[in-house]
Amino acid sequence: MKTKKWTMALLGVGLMLGSALTACGDNGKNAGSGASSASSAAASPSASVAPSAAASTAAAPSAAIAATRSYTDAVGRQVEIPVKPEKLIAHYFASEMVALGQPMLGTNYVNAKQSLSEEQLAGIADVGGADLVPNAEKLIALAPDLIVVPDFVEKGDLDQLNKIAPTVAVAYGTDEFARLRALGELVGRADAADAWIAAYEDKAAKTRDKLKGAIGEGETATAFILYGDKKLYVYGPARVGVTLYGSLGFVMPKSVGDAFAGGSELWKEISIEKLPDYAGDRILLVQSEGSEDTLQALKDSPVWSTLPAVKAGHAYVVPSRWGLNDPLTLDWQLDEAAKLLAP
Question: Which of 72, 77, 289, 296 lies most in the core, judged by the most C-beta atoms within 10 Å?
Answer without folding.
Answer: 77
